[in-house]
User: Fold this.
Amino acid sequence: MIEIRHLKLIDAVAKVGSLKKAAEKLFLTQSALSHQLKELETHLGTQVFYRINNQLHFTPAGKEFRDAGKAILEQLGQLENRVQQINQDRLKSYIHGYSSEETQRLNDQASTISELLHRDSKWEDGALILEAGCGVGAQTQIISHKNPGSNFISVDLSEKSLAQASQVIREMNINNVEFQLADVFDLPFNDNTFDHIFVCFLLEHVSKPELALQELKRVLKAEGTITVIEGDHGSTYFYPDSKTARKAIQAQVTLQKQNGGNAYIGRQLYPMLSDAGFSNVAVSPRQVYVDDSKPEMVDRFIKNTFTAMIKGIKDEALSKRIISRDEIEGGIRDLYKTTEGGGTFCYTFFKAIGYKER
Ligand SMILES: C[S@@+](CC[C@H](N)C(=O)[O-])C[C@H]1O[C@@H](n2cnc3c(N)ncnc32)[C@H](O)[C@@H]1O
Assistant:
């Protein structure tokens, strides 16, 4: 069979004019290159070059192969660029981005509400669990530690986040997690591979979450469960109330919507999972309530998780003219006021569990 390496070989020879230079260009030894050339000529049943005065000349068949191969390589290059661009666009559309501040925020968020979200994140020993959209591994650390008898494959679209996640898991001496680059809309797994699926704060960021759920259902075994945890910014209320702070939160909602996401997805988990064909769907709201009596939560949830999230979208919201500078800065200031004496803050996450029927 003609392989891409054969096309590259002929293309390189056409460009540099000698086998020696072509081998250097392709980082091959000259004997490896001669071997490949022989392989190609045997397959084609004809010679590709002949030599005159130590110079290589293409045979008529070789010319045809060279020209058609060049066009194929160009097409492949364009395809590669288009595919990479799709991935880049997906990464760009992730509203929170991949900064070190966001890594810190995800870790603060996960550890602060770990008990609230994960008191029941328990699966049987021996289970193979897919975690989709694991990010920097903030939830991975918690669920894999809590389920030492299960095995996890944690996937994300961001190579950078996966590298961070994998380093953290190694440093924690956790050895029941494997990380893999994958898109939740096109998972590189066979049908019915996983006993359970876990998704946290992913569906709120993707357009067409119903298609992601279909793909997740495909790789889930019959009688397996899916667990989905998402937020809902409409559940945010606080004291002292502030119209400006509410506007700042609304800016995040609008921006997320413009990027294809849905910041109000929490309330929709029941219909979404049911419509995707999961059965016995059960949703439990998990409310965070913070006041002065929990100073640690004031810092870790109101400041480092929620307000940090609004601060994180400030520049993009301003550049897209979703909100004015005065409003977003005033909104952030007012959110901080809820952390001063007498302030309170409420937010509700939604955790849904559904089953795949036999
Ligand atoms: C808010 S973060 C949540 C990370 C983690 N689950 C947590 O709770 O800390 C969302 C993650 O989803 C990933 N993501 C977005 N679209 C994705 C897709 N189509 N396939 C896989 N991961 C995706 C992003 O790269 C990001 O790491």
